[in-house]
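> example.struct
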């Protein structure tokens, strides 16, 4: 539909120009709002925008129209990616615009086209004519038809790429074997098959041209290769499978044409050729791993082409990033071939050549490494000394650098087995009936290539010593040796402890004892020790730790920074600690860490991470040093924490996190004793005072020294405040630590906090519970009520601490699924623990309103399918209802009509649901069920005088009787536990049985087949789609008792007895006899009511 250049279109153009020309954000906003209004008022609005995008006066105007049209279309796209209605005329007009658009406009229009394609072609399959129209457009385009056509070949192919791209992924992941989508088969048959012939012809032409000047041809080759790659990434169209040999052969020719001459500056045409080569290698990797049925015959040529490329690895320091990526991908292709059947046969004759001329040159230190070390040390560490290597595998897709890919290939080769070793001794059939434990010994007769080739190759390089330490080539080569040992982590872990000890003692530790050794070697040695920490023999740990400690303290040299040395040493020490190594002395390590903190901001964040690991690992052993460490850190951090900055540096955040962790560790270390005068307790209390004063000083500096305290690190500060609250053992201490002032600021910050991220932030709720307890204990006035501020401040009463906390808790219930359970637990604490006097009862009433509204709104989102969050949400409403029944009933009815009865019914159902799964074991929760159901039944039968339905009353009575019985059982179980003597000893099992079980498991473990892999992922996809996925906190939260405050004093048996006395006839009429019988067995005293 061509839209006339009427007044409406002129108005749209004017508004678009306003969005471009205005430097005033308000004017841009006004123009955008006006366009939004026109989009709902004007007929054919999308056509008008598309007409402007196709024929606007200038490029900026056309791009602006296309951008608004793209955003307009996205807004009108449903959650499933489907647009309600797109006419054929609009799609045709869009396609014509794409074929003639200039590059800047094409980019935006393709983004719009992608939205339309996904909806109309992929999901709805409502654009059958697209394929033939696309074929026609490509055939008539300028390069293909060799004419002066206005339709660009590059544009037509980019449209094809946009159509094909969605099919790179499985569209029906729940199916174990998804058939090739009919749309993809159609594209393959009508468009891709003819393009393979075009691709071949263009490759012939490009390879006969020694210059790289024909940009359109190179672009065309690149786009066709991407189309072919996306077409086979997941599926294999039948018509394309027959042509694999043709276009793979052409891609190999392209790879052969690549030049890795670093002395020549690459032209734009050659960069496009490199991109085509990169895409070719990605396609080869996909064929090897996904489509072996079709590609096995091609593997020899793929290997041959890849081998030619990896031999250029010695020049990676001089090549650009794209050329290095191609070498990396070639290594990856070889790794994938190693994982398939023909891999060994094809590659084993080339192992020595690969090691010597490709893998090892990529590992050795080069000029780029040295410049990166000095210019961007963090980038050097990220690329070469990663904190943890993932599993060595031929299927890795995230390596990206030639060195990482070479290391991965080295690991794959080392783990591969050579041919079986023949034995001259003939064994009887009886001898073949061996024990399971002997299987590994027999299997090891097939020795791995790590033993046969890799380690002997690495042993040729001697450890740098005084005689050759200044030889740069020796150091560079040994850097490669150390990189190789890191890449061989999985292989080395399978060796016996004596072998590992010998390797570390003779090939790694000597680096540290050589005077003036290269920092590059020390850094890589640190990294190797960290990678091998999990398999180090215990008797090696002391020497390894000592070496890493020496490296951690290494100062910068005159011309070389030793920052990477210290960072890698910190990583190595962390690995040792994670593997449960305990140093004989912690103090030397702590002194080095504390001594270096504050010298370099970037290094501080690493040191804080190390200190946190040390504290968590050392726990009780480190506790005695924590008061000194905290005091030193706080005095240091006070100098560089600026309260006026809302966002602090990574080092500052790391320091606060470490202080928070140390405060928790120290609290856990409190001695268990009944004697108040115990010396250990006295020492611990002195340390607690030291820590609390230091943390209070830090919080005062961050929060009380400025009118607008920063909102950063609320979770870490909450842990510190929790410790301060625990340390406030009397009113004088609380005053000295300015606890009341800190609580006001903390609560205000908490109310506006929207930075919830992970379950680690659950410590905020620990702080809330402790704050409620201590504020109630000492009667902090600001906790429940705050006075009007003095003039000239606005006469508005600020929120009390409990109101601010309530604001956060209600938001957590509604918005943070992982925090919902703990937030609901805080609802009970906030409503029932504080002493609300009559003059401030309105505070509790307002809390009950916001809590019940948030909990019920969240429950309504989950009501269709029962889940574990039902119980905490419904019980939170119960606490609110017990406090203010009339108010809460109104709130529930306001949220949704019939809300009160829905909540009552769901509450009763949730108890029976819990009972079916496993009997509730938390007495406080069961008691809350009882109290709530009694109050609800009284309302239904006494206040409403029987207007409630019998079904609802029956549900309530059944759940009440079951909950009352369960509460009695829990009380009896608790009494029995208290009467028990010594705990039962756990049955010990022999080490032999354990080892036999391990052997059995390892013997029976088989590699997952492709069918099993697809079945597993299809099942996971089905579970994700069919069930409601809720981000929840740890299941341990289910076992936490809730604090009911004054409600704990209520005798539930008396309440139930009174209710049964008044309504036993109703019970007999409504409740099943078996429920009554079970109830009477638990409470014989009630028998008189039912006889």
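> example.seq
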């Amino acid at each position: 539909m061509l839209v006339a250049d009427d007044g409406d279109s002129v108005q749209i153009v004017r508004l678009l120009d306003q969005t471009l020309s205005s430097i005033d954000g308000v004017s841009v906003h006004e123009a955008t709002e006006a366009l939004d209004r026109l989009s709902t008022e004007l007929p054919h609005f999308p056509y008008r925008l598309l007409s402007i995008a196709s024929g606007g006066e200038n490029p900026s105007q056309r791009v602006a129209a296309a951008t608004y049209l793209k955003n307009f279309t996205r807004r009108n796209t449903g959650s499933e990616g489907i647009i309600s209605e797109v006419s054929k005329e609009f799609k045709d007009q869009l396609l014509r615009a794409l074929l003639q658009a200039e590059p800047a406009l094409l980019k935006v229009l393709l983004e719009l086209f992608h939205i339309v394609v996904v909806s109309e072609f992929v999901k709805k399959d409502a654009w059958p004519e697209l394929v033939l129209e696309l074929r026609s457009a490509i055939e008539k385009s300028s390069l293909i038809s060799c004419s002066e056509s206005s339709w660009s070949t590059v544009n037509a192919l980019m449209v094809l790429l946009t159509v094909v791209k969605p099919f790179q992924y499985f569209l029906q992941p729940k199916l174990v074997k998804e058939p090739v989508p009919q749309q993809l088969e159609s594209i393959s048959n009508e468009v891709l098959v003819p393009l393979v012939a075009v691709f071949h012809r263009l490759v012939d032409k490009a390879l006969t041209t020694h210059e790289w000047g024909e940009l359109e041809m190179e672009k065309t080759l690149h786009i066709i290769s991407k189309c072919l790659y996306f077409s086979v990434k997941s599926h294999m169209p039948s018509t394309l499978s027959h042509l694999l040999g043709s276009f793979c052969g052409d891609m190999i020719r392209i790879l052969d044409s690549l030049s890795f001459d670093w002395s020549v500056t690459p032209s734009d045409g050659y960069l496009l050729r490199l991109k085509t080569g990169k895409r070719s290698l990605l396609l080869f990797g996909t064929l090897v791993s996904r489509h072996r049925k079709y590609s096995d015959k091609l593997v020899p040529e793929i290997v041959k082409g890849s081998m030619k490329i990896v031999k250029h690895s010695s020049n990676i320091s001089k090549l650009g990033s794209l050329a290095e990526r191609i070498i990396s991908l070639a290594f990856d292709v070889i790794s994938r071939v190693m994982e398939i059947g023909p891999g060994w046969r094809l590659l084993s004759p080339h192992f020595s050549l690969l090691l010597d001329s490709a893998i090892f040159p990529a590992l050795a230190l080069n000029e780029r490494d040295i410049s990166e070390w000095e210019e961007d040390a963090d980038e050097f560490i990220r690329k070469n000394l990663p904190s943890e290597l993932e599993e060595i595998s031929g299927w890795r897709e995230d390596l990206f650098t030639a060195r990482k890919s070479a290391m991965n290939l080295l690991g794959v080769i080392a783990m591969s087995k050579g041919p079986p070793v023949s034995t001259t001794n003939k064994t009887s059939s009886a001898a073949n009936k061996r024990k399971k434990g002997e299987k590994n010994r027999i299997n090891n007769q097939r020795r791995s290539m790590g033993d046969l080739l890799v380690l002997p190759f690495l042993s040729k390089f001697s450890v740098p010593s005084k005689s050759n330490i200044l030889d740069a080539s020796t150091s560079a080569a040994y850097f490669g040796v150390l990189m190789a040992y890191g890449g061989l982590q999985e292989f080395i872990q399978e060796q016996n402890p004596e072998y590992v000890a010998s390797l570390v003692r003779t090939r790694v530790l000597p680096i540290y004892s050589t005077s003036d050794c290269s920092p590059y070697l020390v850094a890589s040695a640190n990294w190797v020790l960290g990678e091998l920490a999990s398999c180090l023999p215990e008797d090696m740990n002391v020497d390894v730790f000592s070496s890493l400690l020496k490296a951690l303290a290494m100062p910068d040299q005159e011309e070389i920074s030793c920052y990477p040395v210290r960072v890698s040493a910190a990583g190595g020490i962390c690995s040792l600690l994670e593997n449960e190594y305990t140093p004989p002395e912690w103090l030397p390590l702590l002194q080095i860490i504390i001594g270096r903190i504050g010298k370099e901001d970037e290094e501080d964040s690493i040191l804080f991470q190390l200190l946190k690991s040390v504290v968590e690992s050392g726990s009780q052993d480190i506790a005695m040093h924590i008061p000194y460490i905290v005091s030193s850190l706080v005095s240091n951090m006070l100098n560089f924490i600026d309260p006026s900055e809302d966002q602090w540096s990574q080092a500052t955040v790391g320091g606060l996190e470490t202080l928070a962790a140390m405060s928790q560790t120290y609290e856990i270390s409190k001695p268990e004793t009944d004697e108040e005068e115990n010396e250990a307790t006295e020492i611990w209390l002195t340390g607690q005072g030291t820590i609390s004063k230091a943390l209070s000083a830090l919080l005062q500096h961050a929060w009380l020294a400025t009118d607008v305290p920063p909102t950063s690190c609320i979770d870490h500060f909450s842990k510190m405040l929790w410790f301060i609250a625990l340390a406030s053992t009397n009113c004088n201490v609380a005053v000295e630590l300015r606890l009341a002032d800190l609580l006001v600021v903390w609560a205000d910050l908490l109310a506006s906090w929207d930075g919830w991220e992970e379950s680690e932030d659950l410590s905020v709720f620990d702080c809330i519970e402790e704050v409620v307890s201590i504020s109630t204990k000492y009667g902090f006035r600001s906790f429940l009520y705050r006075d009007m501020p003095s003039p000239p401040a606005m006469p508005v009463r600020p929120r009390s601490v409990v109101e601010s906390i309530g604001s956060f808790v209600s938001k957590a219930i509604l918005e943070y699924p992982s925090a919902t359970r703990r937030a609901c637990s805080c609802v009970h604490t906030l409503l029932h623990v504080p002493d609300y006097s009559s003059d401030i009862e309105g505070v509790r009433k307002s809390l009950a309103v916001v809590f019940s509204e948030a909990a019920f709104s969240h429950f309504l989102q989950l009501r269709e399918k029962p889940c574990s969050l039902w119980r905490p949400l419904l019980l939170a409403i119960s606490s609110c209802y017990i406090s203010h029944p009339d108010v809460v009933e109104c709130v529930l009815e306001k949220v949704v009509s019939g809300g009160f009865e829905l909540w009552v019914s769901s509450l009763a159902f949730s108890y029976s649901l819990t009972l079916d799964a496993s009997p509730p074991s938390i007495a406080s929760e069961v008691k809350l069920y009882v109290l709530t159901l009694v109050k609800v039944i009284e309302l239904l039968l006494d206040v409403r005088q029987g207007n409630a339905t019998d079904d609802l009353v029956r549900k309530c009575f059944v759940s009440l009787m079951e909950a009352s019985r369960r509460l009695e059982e829990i009380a009896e179980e608790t009494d029995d536990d208290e009467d028990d003597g010594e705990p039962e000893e756990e049955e010990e099992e022999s080490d032999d049985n354990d080892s036999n079980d391990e052997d059995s498991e390892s013997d029976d473990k088989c590699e997952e087949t492709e069918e099993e892999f697809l079945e597993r992922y299809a099942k996971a996809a089905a579970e994700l789609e069919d069930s409601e996925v809720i981000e929840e906190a740890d299941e341990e939260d289910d076992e936490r008792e809730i604090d009911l405050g004054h409600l704990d004093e209520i005798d539930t048996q008396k309440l139930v007895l009174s209710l049964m006395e008044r309504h036993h006839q109703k019970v007999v009429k409504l409740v099943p006899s078996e429920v009554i019988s079970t109830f009477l067995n638990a409470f014989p005293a009630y028998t008189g009511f039912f006889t």
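> remarks
Residues 1-127 form one domain.
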